[in-house]
Write a structure and sequence with these properties.
Two copies of one chain form a homodimer. The first copy, chain A, is α+β, with helices and mostly antiparallel strands and 730 residues long. The first copy, chain A, has a domain at 7-301: Glycoside hydrolase, family 65, N-terminal domain (Beta-galactosidase, Chain A, domain 5), CATH 2.70.98. Helices cover 35% and strands 23% of the residues of chain A. The first copy, chain A, is built from 20 helices and 29 strands. In chain A, the strands form eight sheets. In chain A, strands 1, 9, 10, 11, 12, 14, 15, 16, 17 and 20 form a ten-stranded antiparallel β-sheet that branches. Chain A has a five-stranded antiparallel β-sheet with strand order 8-7-13-19-18, with no helix packed on it. The first copy, chain A, has a three-stranded antiparallel β-sheet with strand order 2-3-4. In chain A, β2 and β3 form a beta hairpin. The longest helix of chain A is centred in the C-terminal third of the chain and has 24 residues, at 493-516. At the A-B interface, β22, α14 and α15 of A face β22, α14 and α15 of B.
Amino acid sequence: MMVHPWKIIEDTFIPERVKAAESLFSIGNGKMGQRANFEEAYSGETLQGSYIGGVYYPDKTRVGWWKNGYPEYFAKVLNSAFWIGIDVKINGETLDLHTAKVIDFYHELDMQHGVLTRRFTAELSNKIKVAVEAVRFVSITRTGLGAISYTVQALNSAADIEITPFTDAGVKNEDANYDEKFWDFVFQSATPDHSTIVMQTKKTGFPVCWHSNYVLLLDGNPVEHAFVPVEKTAWAGASAKVKVRKNEKVTLYKYTGITNLQNRNTADLATAAKGIADNAKETGFLRLKEEQAGAWQEKWRHCDVEIGGDEKAQQGVRFCIFQLLQTYTGEDPRLNVGPKGFTGEKYGGSTYWDTEAYCLPFYLSTAGDEVARNLLLYRHSQLPQAIDNAKKLGFTDGAALYPMVTMNGEECHNEWEITFEEIHRNGAIAYAIFNYIRYTGDRDYLSTHGLEVLIGIARFWAQRITWSEERGKYVMLGVTGPNEYENNVNNNWYTNYIACWCLRYTKESMEWVRQNHAACYDEIIKKTHFDELNEWAQWDDITTKMHFPRHEKLNIFLQQDGYMDKEQILVKDLDSAQRPLNQKWSWDRILRSCFIKQADVLQGLYFFEDDFDEDAIRRNFHFYEARTVHESSLSPCVHAVLAAKIGDMDKAYEMYLRTSRLDLDDYNKEVGEGLHITSMAGSWLAVIQGFAGMRVRDGQLTFNPRLPKHWTHLAFNVNFRGEIVHCKFD
Amino acid sequence: MMVHPWKIIEDTFIPERVKAAESLFSIGNGKMGQRANFEEAYSGETLQGSYIGGVYYPDKTRVGWWKNGYPEYFAKVLNSAFWIGIDVKINGETLDLHTAKVIDFYHELDMQHGVLTRRFTAELSNKIKVAVEAVRFVSITRTGLGAISYTVQALNSAADIEITPFTDAGVKNEDANYDEKFWDFVFQSATPDHSTIVMQTKKTGFPVCWHSNYVLLLDGNPVEHAFVPVEKTAWAGASAKVKVRKNEKVTLYKYTGITNLQNRNTADLATAAKGIADNAKETGFLRLKEEQAGAWQEKWRHCDVEIGGDEKAQQGVRFCIFQLLQTYTGEDPRLNVGPKGFTGEKYGGSTYWDTEAYCLPFYLSTAGDEVARNLLLYRHSQLPQAIDNAKKLGFTDGAALYPMVTMNGEECHNEWEITFEEIHRNGAIAYAIFNYIRYTGDRDYLSTHGLEVLIGIARFWAQRITWSEERGKYVMLGVTGPNEYENNVNNNWYTNYIACWCLRYTKESMEWVRQNHAACYDEIIKKTHFDELNEWAQWDDITTKMHFPRHEKLNIFLQQDGYMDKEQILVKDLDSAQRPLNQKWSWDRILRSCFIKQADVLQGLYFFEDDFDEDAIRRNFHFYEARTVHESSLSPCVHAVLAAKIGDMDKAYEMYLRTSRLDLDDYNKEVGEGLHITSMAGSWLAVIQGFAGMRVRDGQLTFNPRLPKHWTHLAFNVNFRGEIVHCKFD
């Protein structure tokens, strides 16, 4: 993988790396995305993936041993029709890089312009050498458009070239729990001009239409009446046979319109998809590509981060920003930021606490208040499901527990130690409201939407704690903190802290709304049957009498009760052959070790830094960083920000590279499954909050830049309260 | 269900209770067993079940989220061919109690003689009334023989009766993880005289042969050449049509030989099965039945428990003894006592810690030393797998962790909180060696087999503990005690206690073998690479510095660290609508509550009663009994024994009825899935160790009888060191 400030480049064909490259070179537009699968046939190892935002399948839950409270299904990100397909035969032999001899190969993702290019020369068994150039993008200006230019040239002889653009809707998910297909076939047609396929998801009944048309050129000149339609089950395309002379170029333009609006009937979808494809054909590939390039440059104008003197760091951060922009645009409040975005199936669902804890600040600063607000509205709209979820577990009176993983507000996750216990997520959702208001100044959001969510969350905490007669303190039993290498612990410091913060912040917010929006306030009180006297008194009691585990001698907060009973070994003393622990050790061993998967106490110090002095942060940082293996993608960014804060710039830089180049350098040996999209927002945080030290205090942007020594400068734009602020630090 | 001292009787046909009765009226002979499914067609709700000891299928593990260390498969108790099948048509209409009008019905399991009888009168849609008597047993004298007598009589008219005995091998398991069939078809034949089917389990390749022959009588006179063979896929039988006059009786005798010896080829199996069936036919049904009755009476001579003045209690204990004797005979050391025996599929596997903790004392006292010794040899033979299992989790140097569930020594269970954490099972396996020696006096067992097992187990504990620098104590992190309503706790008192006991007992045993069998000792030391100096020193250090959680003020042992942080509610204050908790509450709520599923601290006080004074037992009993919901079948028996010990006879009697009539009275609303076989041994313990107060002290049987007031007497026989001891208490 070459280092380049604006591009991801691979200039060698390595079959073992094909899946990794498919992830890394993924393209998307916030509504849909496509892994960098090859257009032509490929018989080697591959993960075909084409994903459409909001189109999911509720796959029947698979567990070993059912526990009361488990969800019935896990909402899967759906692999949908392979619309990029272009079969190529040269003198009757299928072009396939797995069987051909690859002579040279070049793969480029141009992040500045949002275009994917692949060029190669290959020799087939029949000794014909061909050169191919494939260029494609999914448009960010024309929703639902995918465009491909595919050029084939026979280099050493004349040849018969057969080229067959197609859409194959007979696809499956690799992660299907019961090996089912998730799609029902609805309709298809194929003519010499176009193909149309309509499929509908099982159970959820989401219809999707793919409509493609084609243009064929021979050395730049249109070939008329070239195509003959071809159809199979849930597979439609057209085939053209062309006799070419040596070095003559055949170019296919394929324009595909993809529509999936849930509120249209299938006929409308097909008309809309045809419209998109036909307009594109009329516009032409080169002009479309210019449009795309212009739109991407405009995007970058708002959110580029320029790092001088460090191309690896530069490429890393731009890759993260590019992928985030491809995943979520904030235009549709029903969508969210999936952990793998549109780059893989793993983890299912679209929404984790990653959104609130990591992604929100990125979108606030790069995309503006409205986009960020849509992320909050998403959770607001799902408050009823969060209340139902809590009720299912035995909570009452409007307590809300937001799901660990969701598509539509319902919980999908089915490990008890996560689903029922990783409840700190509820805190992050409240924190996001605070964070949004701090950044935007839009405190009125409380009265229109925020307060109801806060009340539901606060009520959950008020019921989730237990009064320990024994200690004369409130305790929080049976939780899993952000560090998932511990389960079912008591008094996770971070969870206890954010729970108390939620109670205080909710009460403050209620008081503010009462004073400033009295009518709204009364309505909310009525709607939630809120009992000011008793509920507030109980909240106050909890926040003043909560137990927070700490170690007096070391003067640090303790991750949880009993943490110091563990054998205290440092990560630096771990044999590297034992890493990553999650691949090398049994779960039993991991659970009993002191090693931390992900920032836990430090996550709390990061969120609530103003509550602690720098020495406290330093002491805890040194203690916990030495025990953290960062086997969650969400971990190093928080350590990077805190390390910069306490002036440990070597550590900050190490953590920054780890987060920003996690996928590019494949730290976790799993990039083939898809990219770690949500943690990419953390990489941005590491630069902006870490190295630039950006904070909002009293409605003002403040900076405290501390750059790694070898960086010549750091420049970026942030969107703050409607203005683009240009920042540059030397 | 009628109360009767020797019989289980049901005299009404209740369709909703058919599955329950199928479990309760199950018959078996320690090698195989058969649920009380009807011979003739039944289209209502049923769980067909026919099981063969040692014949299992390794069903691919199903989990939601894989954890390192999980087993690849779960060994399932296999539903095998339905060999009891007899289709009956009356004037062309199939006899089926689900569709016919049932006029009277009588179902009887004669536990004294080991025979199942069912009689009914039914009217078909065609208005023919028939009376049927079906009698069957699986022989305990002739291994592999099942015999059925089936008589049909038309009561109100002449009729054409078609009677078709068959074996249907096309069966499935309800609990198959992936809805697969577990059997491959090998061979079948059907002639007018007999049918043969050979099937083989997938993956494990266990062949099983079923060979049936038939005799047809009309009013007691043989009908020659009555049968015409009938075959379908994996289904073989024969059909006879008889014209009967009103009240004339047609009787079918069906003899089935079932062979499954793993070391024979399939041809031998078929010859053997034919031999069994043919010999039976020659002997005749009535003589076979006499044989069976005599053999059962002989069994009862050794192990009957007679309770005077309380028929419910009497029936309960005999039912438990009968089912235990049907499940395990101790003749084949490859077999064990499955939690559902041969009465259902649930729980899979054949061996849990139930065997050592509950069943061993029963078989010691009722079946003799050899049978009990076979239970120990079973674990000894699986020591290599236990060492592998521990290695897989990261333990070294011959540490052994016996599996939670197994068929062949390999772990099957796949919940991390059980599989990796419910390690107290290892202690029970060591305790069984101690218990066996205490009862039999056979201390030499240590030198030949026991010591190696003890060393493996002791080494596991020595590695499983953690030195807490903080406390200056050893701790045991991340365990699940017998109370599975808590997971991943620290310092479960029972686990810590039995671990230390294992270390001490192993060292003592080593010293004894060194002194008494020096050559053996040297060999074991060499084989296990045992380092006396260092390992013993470490064990001593652990046993002297182990942390045992206790509550000073209440002067009780604490179930685990932090137990008193829970909200302390008593079971008596629980709304009965909330019970059983495992059906009414979310897992989240159960885990955080103080309610205990199963004796935990009390299990330790039961095992090691001599280490504690009676006051300590009383204090702990009152504290924990008040918090125990007994939602495990293994719980009430331990409470019954302890309650009797401390003189709380009302509680002891309540617990005794709960354990002994658990299935008869269906306390847990789940008897349709099968019986709780292993807990039945606990019922026996409740009588013998509880009410009779039987103990072995210094090689002597001692008694301390305390009977419930209304019992006129308690009499039983125990087998002690080769003698049958007759005990009677008034």
